[in-house]
C-alpha cells in the first residue's frame, strides 16, 4: 500500500512511512518528531489494543495538534475469523484469532459504542470535538455462506 502511494501520489512534502500504532512509538518519535495532524482512515479497527493506539496518537501530536480518525466499530472479517476458528484444522489457532478482535467489535449498541470511544479519546488525553456513530447492515460478507 505504501509503495503504491509512493508510485502514484508522489509529493516533495510527503514521505510515506509505516508505523504500527499499537506498539511502542518512541523510535518513530525520535526519528520524526511530533505532528500537527494525524489521519487514520479505516485502520484502527485492525488494532486489538485500541487504548494504546489512542494514547500513541496523542503522543504523536504536537501541542494544539489535530487528528481525524475514521474506523469501523464492527468488521465482518472478525465474525468470519471467529467462526472459522471453531472448525478443524483451525481450532488450534482459536486464541490467536480471538486475540486479534478489538473490543469495539463486540459492542452492538450505538450509545454504548459512543461512550466507549469517548472514553478512549479522553483517557488518551485527547479533546473530543465530534464523534459520530453510524450503524448500517453490512453487505460485505455473509459468514454463513463464507464458512
Terminal residue distance = 28 Å
| Residue share in β-strands | 5-15%
C-alpha Rg (nearest Å): 17 Å
> Strand order within the widest sheet?
1-2
Give the % helix. Answer: 25-40%
Report the sheet with the most strands, covering strand number, pairing sense and barrel closure.
2 strands, parallel
- The overall pLDDT average reads 90
Total helical segments: 7
Organism: Amblyomma americanum (Lone star tick)
GO molecular function, one term: S-adenosylmethionine-dependent methyltransferase activity
Protein name: Methyltransferase type 11 domain-containing protein
InterPro entries: Methyltransf_11 (IPR013216), SAM-dependent_MTases_sf (IPR029063)
Q: Which keywords apply here?
A:
globular, 147 residues, alpha+beta, 2 strands, 12% strand, two-stranded parallel sheet, 7 helices
Molecular structure report:
The protein has helices at 2-8, 26-32, 50-60, 76-84, 94-98, 110-123, 143-146, and strands at 35-41, 61-70. It has 147 residues and is α+β, with helices and mostly antiparallel strands. It has a two-stranded parallel ribbon with strand order 1-2. Strand 1, helix 3 and strand 2 (61-70) form a beta-alpha-beta unit. This is Methyltransferase type 11 domain-containing protein. One of its GO terms (molecular function) is S-adenosylmethionine-dependent methyltransferase activity. It comes from Amblyomma americanum.
Amino acid at each position: 500500500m505504501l509503495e503504491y502511494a509512493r508510485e502514484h501520489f508522489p509529493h516533495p512534502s510527503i514521505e510515506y512511512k509505516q508505523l504500527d500504532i499499537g506498539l511502542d512509538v518512541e523510535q518513530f518519535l525520535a526519528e520524526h518528531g511530533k505532528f500537527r495532524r494525524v489521519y487514520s482512515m479505516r485502520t484502527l479497527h485492525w488494532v486489538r489494543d485500541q487504548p494504546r493506539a489512542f494514547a500513541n496518537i496523542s503522543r504523536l501530536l504536537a501541542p494544539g495538534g489535530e487528528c481525524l480518525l475514521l474506523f469501523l466499530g464492527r468488521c465482518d472479517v472478525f465474525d468470519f475469523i471467529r467462526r472459522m476458528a471453531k472448525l478443524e484444522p483451525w481450532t488450534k489457532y482459536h486464541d490467536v484469532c480471538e486475540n486479534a478482535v478489538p473490543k469495539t467489535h463486540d459492542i452492538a449498541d450505538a450509545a454504548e459504542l459512543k461512550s466507549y470511544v469517548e472514553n478512549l479519546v479522553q483517557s488518551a488525553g485527547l479533546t473530543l470535538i465530534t464523534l459520530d456513530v453510524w450503524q448500517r447492515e453490512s453487505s460485505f460478507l455473509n459468514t454463513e455462506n463464507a464458512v
